Amino acid sequence: MTTAWNRLKFAFASDIDALLTKKEQQNPLALLNRYIKDAEQQTADTGKWLERQSQLITKLEKELEEASALLEKRSRQQELAAAAGEEELAQFAERETAAYSGRVSTLEASIADNRKEYQLLEQKYEDMKHKVKDMKIRQLQLMGKENATRANVYMDRVLHPEKDEEGFGTADEMNSYIERLGSRIEEQHEQNVLVHRLEALEKNSAHGEEIR
Question: What is the pLDDT of residue 134?
Fold first, then answer.
């Protein structure tokens, strides 16, 4: 029973998704609204990555500053040790100098690469923001067009009810419309009641199986 009910719920959800998709295809404004929402989220995520990239560059620059300072220090110490005839200390300082020199070179190359990547990301990020802005302007244009269309339809229903098949120019037509609307509401209520009863039946059935 549970498996069958899950399949029924899945089929119902799929039908709803298909219906919404069809409605959006018929309504360019609704489709644009969803697209703008997704684009805004992607732009916000890109902004976070850009900020993280900047933070990484700052950390690399700090590491370079420390490595450069130690390179200079060990190089100076190597000269002092050599001048003092401290061969062991001079050799140690020489190895340290080589290690820090290699680290400095690696960090400089890494920082250069990351700065280049940051510039590319920043350019794309700005392009994304312009794109979202253009879509919002288009959204306002479509909203204005849709609003004007709806206003004309409603005004024509009042000014020229004879041209509107669904218009209600008389009291009887208005009452008939209200009755049809009331019937749809009652049908929806009955459907909701049946859904709740099915869910209760499923819950009781599952509870009975646990007792067994």
Answer: 87
